[in-house]
Amino acid sequence: MYYVYVLKSERSGIWYTGSTDDLRKRLNQHNSKRSTWTKRGVPWELIYYEASLDRDDAVAREVYLKTGTGKRYLKNRLKRFLTLTG
Known about the structure:
4 helices, GIY-YIG endonuclease
């Protein structure tokens, strides 16, 4: 399986979108500061993910979720979750 995921920094509140074939390992890498882009936002919370059978599909979805339209989709999709967690 391949995953597209969204993390939220518990420290700054910023979001990070990525893709991987091992979601647990990748989240661990983010939280242990082994990722250049996310080492300053530790700790990270997984707030959303999608699974795909095909790597190309997962990467295409990641690219979409990083666009303005994709970000709006995520905010609408996670609206209830975001109000519960602040």
